[in-house]
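Protocol step 4 of 6: structure prediction from sequence.
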Amino acid sequence: MNLRSSSMIAAACLALVAASACADGAPTPRTAKGAASSGHVLPMTAAARKPNDSGVSIQYRVEGAATVGRAISVVLQFDGVSDPAGATARLTADAGLTLATSSNLTLPAGKSTTATATVTSDREGLAYLNVFVTQNGAMSIVAIPIQTGASVPAMKAAGELKSSAEGEKIISLPAKEPK
């Protein structure tokens, strides 16, 4: 094989990869400060899992910075549905957030499912988009933080970070005496 045919094969492979990336039907995500226009897509965040959860893995991405009164998108990806009957996902929003999209999703077995939830903050601060996934009677719960405004929440000084026997992080707080 000569150099010219090697470079032609490499160019064809790159074109095929680019075409397949565009053909998946997913819209180009919007990100803060025009990052999508530069071709940069923010990575998904993998939600923590418990050993006794539903078995469905959840990844998410909050697109853009939340501001009061302006809708933003939260892209959700669900994988690992093994029950032939599928799984279900239910979305709820904390006080301070309004969910503008469907709150119930059906997740088919053996397929990756991507959904976009649209939320609007009505005040500054931290609120959560809650995702409840049920499969085979087991449930996973993920709370996706939506920070609106510039203030970043800080943990109170009281309390000590410890680890349980299973490796989970626990904040130990002193008990208050009854008055």
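Step 5 (inspection) to follow. The chain has one helix and eleven strands.
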